[in-house]
Amino acid sequence: MTRRPPASPPPGRDPADSADQVDIVGPADSNNFAVGSVAGRILRLAVPMTLAHLINLLYSIVDRIWLGRWQAEGAMALAGVGLSFHVVAVISSISRLAAPGSVPLFNIARGGGDRERAARIMGNAFSTLLILSVVLTAAGLVFRRPILFLVGASDDTIRYAEDYLSIYLCGTVFAMCGLGMNGFINAQGFGRVGMLTVLLGAIVNIVLDPILIFGLGLGIRGAAIATVFAQGCSALWAISFLRGNKPVIPIRAEWMRLDPRILSRSLALGVAGFTMAMTNSIVGTFYNVALRDLGGDLYVSVMVIVHSIQEIVQLPGGGLSEAAQPVMSYNYGAGRNDRVRRAMRFISAVSVSIYVVLWAGVLLFPEALIRVFSSDPELVRVGVGAVRAYFLVFVLMAFQGLGQAGYVSLGLTKHAVFFSVLRKGVIVAPCILLLGYGLGLGTLGVFYAEPVSHVLGSVTCYVVFMLTIYRKRLVDKPPASL
């Protein structure tokens, strides 16, 4: 494929000027990431994308908050829905094979001026999501009970987990297609539309949760029904937008026919996101089983809260890194390695700063954060120590996200997969066994496995990228061909 030449700077502007300015981009340039300030481009995507992720997180967070306050059954319901989310995470990880793996290729093709290839990549992603959702729904409904016991359910929590998961699985197609295709909305520069996609669903979920859980007395089943209905609204919104006339590259039926070459490349790059999400789910199972064995179901409930806090505090830094990916991929495809380097330096400085502030907040105010989810005195007491152990060096998590953003943006599948597995699979899981059982530290040792993984895995991920990939591909050599 022939590459187009690097985009020229606007008349009267020195190319270097964009390094320190946040641009105001005209309508004609609003979807061209090769012009204007790199920082401005990233921030224009980061704000709505981060808000979108926060809003999307409200789906599960609101469920946990309401269920945690369900009289008499709150603690067990909280544990049950937390166990269900590990299965939901598996579904989400499989969806990452299709959409997130396709988005960088979509942007590299768009940056190189090949609109037809970009359209085919998006169409193939949509078809793959539809096929996967049908398969996962059927498999999940058949095997849900043994899977829930495998991820740490007990005789006391299984009925709550099964009630939630059975209903959630019926909306798998909405969850996969809504979030999956929303990535292509953001990738074309429509960050606000992407945010509205999840805002619509979150509002529906927030309104329906108390009505169904308490008003109609449906309990945990009501939470699941609200989530499915909300995800359906988001999916219909996203697909309707992509079928319209506003996107730079809309989705059309003629581009949805599966192309083995595109599919294999997209799935190969998607393996990184899939591996990271799947590894997280597997390690989550290690956590649940170890905590159940060493402390009981109460500690499983504590882990649900700890994980909820983690999801919230890593949103801003993670959103910034994710927003930089389409900008870096586009410029890499356009031959603008200088802008890719500038983007990496910018997100590194800002992301680490964000993590420092939020990390300090968690360590200083753990009890206040736990009480958002539950006021149970014993759960709060146990939770404070767990939060401080788990988040001991959480600031280093910034480097994992930065390194992964660099690898994925440049289409480096093997590197992204390796570092996805290294931290969680190679480091965390053995540390849970060693610290919790081998050294006799019990439940506290289980929570200490996370900071060990940040010291050994997160820092290594970033350092290797900056010392090898950054220097060799973005400084010494032109971008590799598609």
Protein architecture, described:
The structure is a single chain. This protein is an all-alpha fold and 482 residues long. Helix content is 77%, strand content 0%. The protein has one domain. It has 17 helices and no strands. Helix 4 (115-150) runs antiparallel to helix 5 (158-169), helix 9 (260-294) runs antiparallel to helix 17 and helix 15 packs parallel to helix 17 (442-476). Residues 1-29 have low confidence and may be disordered.
Please report which band the strand proportion falls in: under 5%, 5-15%, 15-25%, 25-35%, 35-45% or over 45%.
Answer: under 5%
User: Any idea what the radius of gyration is?
Assistant: 22 Å
State the total count of DSSP E strands: 0
Instruction: Give the terminus-to-terminus CA distance.
Output: 7 Å
Q: What is the overall number of helices?
A: 17
Helix content: over 70%
Instruction: Look at the structure and give the mean pLDDT.
Output: 80
> Low-confidence stretches at least 5 residues in length (pLDDT < 50)?
1-29
Spell the H/E element sequence: HHHHHHHHHHHHHHHHH
Distinctive features:
mainly alpha; disordered N terminus
Write the layout of secondary structure elements.
Elements: H1 38-68, H2 74-95, H3 99-111, H4 115-150, H5 158-169, H6 172-187, H7 191-215, H8 219-242, H9 260-294, H10 297-313, H11 315-333, H12 337-364, H13 366-371, H14 377-390, H15 397-409, H16 413-438, H17 442-476
